[in-house]
Amino acid sequence: MAARGSGDPARLVGLLWAASGSGAAPGRTGLSTARVVDVAVTLADEEGLAAVTMRRVADALGVGAMSLYTYVPGRAELVELMLDRVAAQVYDGGDLPRDVREAAGWRAGVLRVVDANWAHHLRHPWTIDVPPARPVLGPGVTSKYELELAPLDGIGLSDLEIEHVLSSVLGLVGHAARWTIGVERVRAETALTELEWWETVGPALGAAMGGRSFPLAERVGSAVGEAVQAADDPELSMRYGVERLLDGVAARLR
């Protein structure tokens, strides 16, 4: 499996921008780069990123695998195109961050970014499985970045501070999404709810601890369990972290 960032980066940039414009016109086979990418995204949404191979995408399109290479150089480039395609859709059908800012202030605009990215990761769980690499320099990712900078522009932060705040917010969202999706996958694989898991693990843990006491961990863990009926709540933790980060930004602006 080719790593992200492999291949010809200049060719990939051209392909990313052509796929969203006039270069997306279908060929004689009815295929186009855009069509290949759409089918790959659907496959990833349904079966995960590992299912996205050139052969599986070709099968879904009803063509031979070699036919795809006319439109996409390889799997590594296909994943970049997929990321750009779904990034372009993050705010489809919803309020744009700048509009929310104009109506309710910069903080509400940033929270719109949080909500949109949270929904994006849950809608496309495979996005958390793509390893970090250089940025995808396509129109979808670029437009998304432009939209998400808007709530923080002109409020008194430097350009570097704007970037740091946005990156921190998106990092909190991405971490919580990875955590949430990971837990959901484990639940599906084990067929155990959180309560059933604790009922299984609790007695074994008590025996293994051999009477050792961890009063602070027990107190905090019990409080969390009572509040969220689970060992943790990634979304709740994420939203707490975002709010405190934005409190810090507000204090910085005073």
Q: What is the secondary structure topology, with strand pairs?
A:
Layout: H1 9-18, H2 33-47, H3 54-61, H4 65-68, H5 75-87, H6 97-104, H7 106-123, H8 139-149, H9 159-190, H10 194-209, H11 215-228, H12 234-253
* Percent strand: under 5%
Q: Order of helices and strands, N to C? A: HHHHHHHHHHHH
Which shape, going by the Cα principal axes? flat
Number of strands: 0
CATH superfamily of the largest domain: Tetracycline Repressor, domain 2
- The level of helicity is 55-70%
Task: Report how far the terminal alpha carbons are from each other.
Answer: 50 Å
CATH architecture term of the largest domain = Orthogonal Bundle
Main β-sheet, in a few words?
none
The CATH class assignment of the largest domain is Mainly Alpha
Number of H- or I-type helical stretches: 12
Structural class: mainly alpha
Return the domain count.
Answer: 2
The low-pLDDT segments are none
Q: Give me the CATH fold name of the largest domain.
A: Tetracycline Repressor, domain 2
Kindly state the mean pLDDT as a whole number?
92
Radius of gyration: 22 Å
